[in-house]
Each structure stands twice: as structure tokens, then as C-alpha cells.
Amino acid sequence: MADPKGFLSTPRRLPPRRPVAERVRDWNEVQVPGGLLPIVSAQAGRCMDCGIPFCHASCPLGNLIPEWNELVSRDDWRRASERLHATNNFPEFTGRLCPAPCESGCVLAINQPAVTIEDVERAIVDRAWESGYVIPKPPERLSGKTVAVIGSGPAGLAAAQQLTRAGHTVAVYERADRVGGLLRYGIPEFKMEKRHLDRRLAQMRAEGTKFRTGVGVGTDVDAAELRARYDALVVAVGATAWRELSVPGRELAGIHQAMEYLPLANRVQEGDFARPPITAEGRHVVIVGGGDTGADCLGTVLRQGAASVTQLDIHVRPGTERPEDQPWPVHPKIYRMSAAHEEAQQLGASPDADVDARLFSAATIRFEGAHPGPGGATGGVRALRLVGVDADGRPEPGSERVLRADMVLLALGFSGPERDGGLIDQLGLELDARGNIARDEGFATGCEGVFAAGDAGRGQSLIVWAIAEGRSAAAAVDRYLAGSTTLPAPVTPADRPMVV
């Protein structure tokens, strides 16, 4: 420990964010550039170097958090980067996008604010890139074995990097025109600038990983034929089958799935459009869904200049303190304000919200819109009718109300991998009871030499779980190809976050 009393003498501090009025006019990350470095060493010094660091157990990657906290507190950035990369292929992603269950498991969090683990992680990797510590690590020799990875999200990229470094020849197949999956087209630029992704992809290319974009396995290429061409295949296509909202009026124009809307906004940042085909500019927007995707929609809507925006969450508004039935070290359901919610609150973006832009305990019962136009053309949505619900989801009598809405975004989560793309049928893969790809304890599917990693097998989850699954699946593939492996396997398919 650099400072044995650091957790007593140093209060928790977060890096400053740029003023709301400034950041909603651009798409850059919300933090003040360089605002983390002046405080991060002292924040890392708050780590107590616990005898049993529960932050390890709370992180599926098993990140060596006390070790790199101490190194940062001593300004030993090179060694901190080595310890961080020992367990995490892409800490610049998790340091920006993960909800930090490790902080919920911090022993200090029993009775004090937790160590700012995620901020320390981000500072380490950003400093490592700036200092030239992150370099390609190509294998010393090739195994002669080939692997195809289907999907270039965090699970697929992690599996590909691990297998490439193990000496196998790896090709990643991505149906979109650019590599990255939801990291590229689902995550808004203000949460993670895509230069971080591009920089890591350049490292992977230098190591020997090949990328095939614009190739839909199951449509453009038969999945069974692809399997025959490679010694092993990793299916990491994510859980992209979005949930629907089957209520009257769903057919009205102006109602879009979040993953129809967000990729177009990201494509503007990539230079594909000057103006997105679907935009919130000047519109009264309602977002249905209270999760992270809904918050991503919220921040995007604000930057596009919506007239107003309200986010509906069917759940009861949580409290600000850890509930008794969710004790340390589990990740509690408490009221959290994202950067997008902070923006909406300061801008007064929603005239109907309970707090920031959100209406809690609200369930949509129908959409209302204009009459069909000449020739039977579908009319546009004009309003959303909702009802208040109790903690069990039952309607509250007399709680119906109408919100103005000429644009609605559905952010209701995902139900597993897409079933109609041909891949599952062509490989003869089985699905489990939850609609995900079935696999055994070694990530292997029922098809010889085919493995499943990430949300495709686990279901919708966190980026840190996707990376952990990619690393573990890579170890399983390496063992299948070589008979043994030295690659780490931090999780099994049966592992789940700590819950009560």
C-alpha cells in the first residue's frame, strides 16, 4: 500500500465532465480531456489492499485491481498497464462502458464510497497508449490451424486476439461494413469515441488477425461450408434479436427500434451521412425502456436537437441507498444518473418526467396517431398512452395519461441471437430454454468444432462478461486444436454475477 491511511484521508473524487451546454453540441466524450490524471493517483491510493479483494470476484475477468491500484498510486504506469492487460484485452472499452460491478464489491464500499476502480482502469490504458506501452504481440510461431470467428463485438474480438497470439490463423467475419459490432454502431460516440476501437483493431491486424467485413455468415456465406474450411469456428454474433412492444398502434410511422435508430446516428460520425435518415431534430420523443440502451438513445436525441424527450421505465424508481435485500458485495439496483440523464435534467428536456427525463412505474398501453393518408398510407404517431403500474406490474386505477410523441424509440432489450439469419440452422445448432445457443461446460456446441461465446450463448449481458467469455472460449478452442492450452479461462458458461 502506498498510503495505508489513504482510504481514510482521501475522499472519493470523480473526473470532471464538460458543461452540459457545451457537450450536447458535439459528439465527443463527456469527460474533460486530461481531467482524470491530476486526481487518479490519489484515488488509486484509497485502495485498502484487502486480504480478500472481493472486487476480483465481482469482476468476471478477475482483474488484478489492488495490484494496479498500488502501481498507479506510485506512478508506475508501465507495470500497471502490464497487470491490467494480463486479464483484460480491451480495458479502454470496459473503462468507459462497464457499469463497474467491481466497485460494488469493493470492501471499502461496505461503509464508505468505493474506490473509483473504473476511472483508474481508464487512466492506465489511456496513459499506456500515449506512452507507447501497448504494442502488437504477434505469435512467435504459427500452429498451422485455422479459426473463423463470426461476429466482431467484444466477445469475438477477445477470442480472436487470444487465438491469434496462441499461433492460430484467425479470420473474423462481420456482416456490417466495419468491424466492431455494437461497439461500432450501437455505442454512441459520446460514450466511447471510435478512435479507441480503431486503435485496438490496428494492433490486432499487426498481430495477424484478418477481418472480413460485409460478409453475413448464413446469408452471403453458408455457415456449414465455412465450418468445413476452418479447423474450428467461434460463434460470437451477440444477442441482437430485439424485443417488440405489441400494443395497438405499433404500426404507425415514427416508431423505431433503438437499434434501427442508434446505428444511423453513429454512421453520421463515420462520415456515411451528413444527416441521419432517422433523426429526433425538432421532434417530441418518447423512449420506451429504462436501461442503458434507452440512456444511449436519450443522449443521442438531445444532441440531435429534439423538442422534448421523456424516457419510460416500467420499474419502480429505486432508492439512492443499497437495499437491505441486496447486501454488499452484490451489484445493487439503485438510482443512478448517467451523463445523458444529467444532460436532460439540466436542459429541462422533459415536461412530464418524475426526475431527469424519466417516468418510472410507467407501462405503454397504446400508440395514437394520424388517420391513414391517401391511398391507405400509414399515418404517423402523435401520442403515447400509458398507465402507472405497481411493483408487480399491475395497472394503477385512474393513472392513465397521454404523452405527446411524434417519434418513439423502443429500447426493450434483446431476447437472444437472431433466428432467421440462416447460421443457426445451417450449423444445426440447438437453443437452450432461454433462446440462446446451447453449449457445454467447455463452450462447445453440438456441432463438432463449433464454439459459442458472449451474448449469443449467455444472453444479453455486460461488456465485461463478453470479453471474459471470449477469453474463455479461446482457451477451449486452443485446447481442442492443440490438445492443451495455457490461455486463461476466467469464466465458465454456467457462471453468473453474484446475486442474493
Automatic annotation (TrEMBL):
Keywords: Amino-acid biosynthesis, Glutamate biosynthesis, Oxidoreductase. It comes from Streptomyces milbemycinicus. It holds the Pfam family Pyr_redox_2. This is Glutamate synthase subunit beta. InterPro entries: 4Fe4S_Fe-S-bd (IPR017896), DPD_II (IPR028261), FAD/NAD-bd_sf (IPR036188), FAD/NAD-binding_dom (IPR023753), Glut_synth_ssu1 (IPR006005), Glutamate_Synthase (IPR051394), Helical_ferredxn (IPR009051). Residues 38-69 form the 4Fe-4S ferredoxin-type domain. Pathway: Amino-acid biosynthesis. It comes from the Bacteria.
